[in-house]
Write a structure and sequence with these properties.
This protein is α/β, with parallel strands linked by helices and 278 residues long. It folds into two domains: 16-84 and 157-251, P-loop containing nucleotide triphosphate hydrolases (Rossmann fold), CATH 3.40.50.300; 90-154, no CATH class. It has nine helices and twelve strands. The protein has helices at 59-67, 102-105, 114-123, 139-151, 169-186, 197-200, 220-223, 227-233, 237-241; strands at residues 21-30, 33-43, 48-52, 74-79, 85-88, 157-161, 189-193, 206-210, 214-218, 249-251, 257-259, 275-276. A seven-stranded mixed beta sheet has the order 5-6-7-3-8-9-12, sandwiched between helices. Helix 3 (114-123) crosses helix 4 (139-151). Residues 1-6, 10-15, 238-257 and 268-274 have low confidence and may be disordered.
Length: 278
């Protein structure tokens, strides 16, 4: 597919091309313990697909399987030819005594020039921390730097494992908005893992609810009413799931308020049929 000048894909609806990643009948077992069984999943360019499920449901194992870090025990995973993946891990541990600036951190995995680093940090709203020590960053600042690292690969698909953990509620809203904007501007697919049901459901196209198998999948508003979803997340889940948040300002990576111009109306997300899996 042709790319834009910055390496991004043109934004496309998810029906305009084949999936970037196709998972069919995936089974993962560690010894006698089956972690995933019969998982089907598609992620297309320009689509945000969110994995939800209780602790121990196998979400991170599914992500690692898509990344090629876990070998399936059964089923298939097909990746588009030449696919580039940008991965944001759930956690990052950095030795406290290691002298490491954000600029240097972003060059550890690949060769990138100063201009590209500055540009991607500006894109994620973290330009001001470029010369800060990585250990001194707040939770929101660190998550934005990790997102910048994933974007430096010019990915076709972003794989984000709990991208808003250790971030306060305002920071969570801003990060989910940022991810949606990146999807729009770069045209990449996004595979997202999250526990933040009341926030993530309003910023995703397709929700896949798993508990070792696929319990249900489809549009957020449909999944949030599904009996298996309600059984997994309790009687408050339906009230919290599809949460819309709107105000006239946002917060930068340090938490400071930035006023916004009047919002422009956004198109409604494309309807996606609900699929129930036994």
């Amino acid at each position: 597919m042709a790319r834009l000048e910055n390496g991004a894909r043109p934004y496309m609806s998810s029906h305009e091309e084949r999936p970037l990643v196709t998972v069919r009948g995936l089974r993962v077992a560690f010894g006698a313990r089956t972690v995933l069984d019969g998982i089907d999943l598609d992620v297309r360019a320009g689509e945000i697909v969110t994995l939800i499920g209780p602790n121990g449901a196998g979400k991170t194992t599914l992500v690692k399987s898509v990344l090629g870090l876990v070998k399936p025990s059964g089923g298939t995973i097909e990746r588009a030819s030449g696919l580039t993946i940008g991965y944001m891990p759930q956690r990052l541990q950095v030795e406290q005594t290691l002298p490491l600036t954000v600029r240097r951190f972003l060059t550890l995995w690949q060769k990138v020039d100063r201009t590209e680093i500055a540009k991607v940090l500006d894109e994620v709203g973290a330009a001001r921390v470029i010369d800060s020590a990585i250990q001194t960053l707040s939770g929101g600042e660190l998550q934005r730097v990790l997102l910048a690292r994933a974007l430096l690969r010019r990915p076709d698909i972003l794989v984000l494992d709990e991208p808003v953990q250790a971030v306060d509620v305002h920071g969570q809203i801003e990060l989910f908005n940022l991810i949606a904007n990146i999807r729009q501007s770069r045209g990449c697919g996004v595979l997202l893992v999250s526990h933040d049901l009341h926030l993530v459901m309003a910023r995703t196209d397709t929700v896949v609810c798993i508990n070792r198998h696929v319990c249900c999948s489809g549009r957020p508003e449909d999944v949030s009413r599904h009996p298996e979803y309600l059984a997994l997340f309790g009687r408050y889940a339906a009230a919290l799931a599809v949460y819309q948040h709107s105000h006239d300002h946002h917060h930068d990576c340090a938490g400071s308020v930035i006023e916004l111009p009047p919002a422009q109306p956004q198109p409604l997300p494309r309807p996606i049929p609900l699929h129930r899996h036994s």
